[in-house]
Amino acid sequence: MGDHAQPRHDQHRGLRGRLAGLFSSPPPQPPNHQSNEQITKLMEELGRQRDLKETYKARLESTQGYLRFCLEVAQERGFMHLISDSAQPQQHSPHRDADSETAPTAAGDDVDDEDEPAETPPPCDPYLAATRGLAVEHGWSVAPEEIELHEVVGRGTTADIHRATWRGLEVAVKWVRPELFVSNPSAEAFFAQEADLLSRQRHPHVLRLMGACLRPPGSCFLVTELLSGATLGEWLHGARERGTRASSSPPPPPLVDRVSRALEIALAMLHLHEQTPRVVHRDLKPSNVLLDAELRARVTDFGHARFLPDGKEALTGETGTYVYMAPEVIRCEPYTEKCDVYSFGILLNELITADHPYIDTSYGPSKIALGVADGKLRPKLPESDGYPTGLIDLICRTWDAEPSRRPSFAAVTSALREIRQQIVQHGEQYQNYSYA
User: Fold this and answer.
1) pLDDT given at position 297
2) CA dihedral in degrees (331, 337, 339, 343; nearest 10)?
3) What is the tens place of the pLDDT at every residue in 325-348?
4) Domains in the chain, number
5) Are residue 257 and residue 183 in the same domain, yes or no?
6) Residue 112 is assigned to a structural domain of this protein
7) Which of 91, 182, 284, 320 lies at a CB distance of 3.0 to 4.6 Å from 343, suitable for a disulfide?
8) Sign, CA torsion 158/325/350/272
9) What GO molecular-function term can you cite, just one (predicted)?
10) Average pLDDT over all residues of the chain
11) Structural domain boundaries enclosing 334
């Protein structure tokens, strides 16, 4: 009996060992460096896709309110019929339908479709027609044959900037590409508003309009003064790209000059915001500020600008450039002229640090937009030590998440004058602070 028990016991013990081996964890394997890199890349791509998803979700959620705003503006401006007509392209215009029902031909016969003349082009936008009339009345209407175009000196998304000659003067011509009017039914109204808005400006730091031609699609252009200086961004950063830090390039202009440019831009924005109705620029950034031969700043590019009556808020989709765009604009919420104050705050910080915004991060536009909209992201501030009193505080107040807490441009210009005075009085103290 005892001889048979021992082998049986050994069998059970061996079975338990094999079962334990099956259910136990495998021994740790050495890490695979290549696999870890792949996992890291996948996680980064997942994060980017998540950022894009949140951005698109925010856009979709704002669409209904944006469309309501568009309909209200169309009704107020008297061009609701244009939206109605474009929504039903298969139908004839209401005027033609009414004519066909009530006014037979002189001979009383039906007219064959093949004998009908080609349909005449639709009338231009009412705002464009009114602006064209103002241009003729006040003497700033320009005929295409008056302009002699020279080389292209700048390119935008919808227009080319030419050096040109007009009536013996060297001028700049912003010529809108004809395809814009073909692809965008609202282009005529937008161009008319830019021309109308610029024609009202008379300020030493706002680009001066000299004339305009409003004959879409082939001849729509603005004639402005020709400035020999660079853009503010070129003056500040030179040939550096956004990904290059200031420390790797020649030093920027002196601090007093950078603050002076900021003050000139603030004076231009004060002028726009004090008009009736107010003018909201909506795309303030270094590339939209030009410098003249004496390096004085001129705010330009009013393609996104809008009139804003007193007591009104504007509601629209994302307008401008993400890096300089106010959080309420990114969220597609109602906003006022304080969105320009936010953009100026980003620009002011860029002038002081001499670095592109968010250069210390690897974020793309969508990630920046989400961070700004959540109130958690702003560009890196300059070091507080060594800068004039109140400068860092002014920057922080201009980009406050709550628009009502941002200062007006009247307060901004007053603060910048004091800051510049400090620099002039204590020049040696600040001359070495070229960077943050």
Assistant:
1) 97
2) 160
3) 999 999 988 899 999 999 999 999
4) 2
5) no
6) no
7) 284
8) positive
9) protein serine/threonine kinase activity
10) 79
11) 232-430
pTM: 0.71
SS (H, E, C) the chain: CHHHHHHHHHHHHHHHHHHHHHHCCCCCCCCCHHHHHHHHHHHHHHHHHHHHHHHHHHHHHHHHHHHHHHHHHHHHHCCHHHHHHHHCCCCCCHHHHHHHHHCCCCCCCCCCHHHCCCCCCCCCCHHHHHHHHHHHHHCCECCHHHEEEEEEEEECCCEEEEEEEECCEEEEEEEECHHHHHHCCCHHHHHHHHHHHHHCCCCCCECCEEEEEEECCCEEEEEEECCCCCEHHHHHHCCCCCCCCHHHCCCCCCHHHHHHHHHHHHHHHHHHHCCCCEEECCCCCHHHEEECCCCCEEECCCCCCEEECCCCCECCCCCCCHHHCCHHHHCCCCECCHHHHHHHHHHHHHHHHCCCCCCCCCCCHHHHHHHHHCCCCCCCCCCCCCCCCCHHHHHHHHCCCCHHHCCCHHHHHHHHHHHHHHHHHCHHHHCCCCCC
Q: Are residues 193 and 267 in the same domain?
A: no
Q: Which of 225, 258, 290 is the last residue of a domain?
A: 225
Asked whether residue 170 falls in the same domain as residue 267, the answer is: no
Q: What's the CA gap between 307 and 208, in Å, rounded?
A: 18
Does 53 belong to an annotated binding site? no
Per residue in 153-204, pLDDT (tens digit) is 988 888 999 999 999 999 999 999 999 998 998 899 999 999 999 999 999 9
Same domain (yes/no): 219, 236: no
**Statement to judge: residues 201 and 329 lie in one domain:** no
Provide the phi-psi class of 339: left if phi over 0, else alpha when psi is between -120 and 50, else beta.
Answer: alpha
User: Hey, which residues are catalytic here?
Assistant: 283
**How many CA atoms are closer than 13 Å to the CA of 167, on its beta-carbon side?**
9
Q: Is 400 within the bounds of a domain?
A: yes
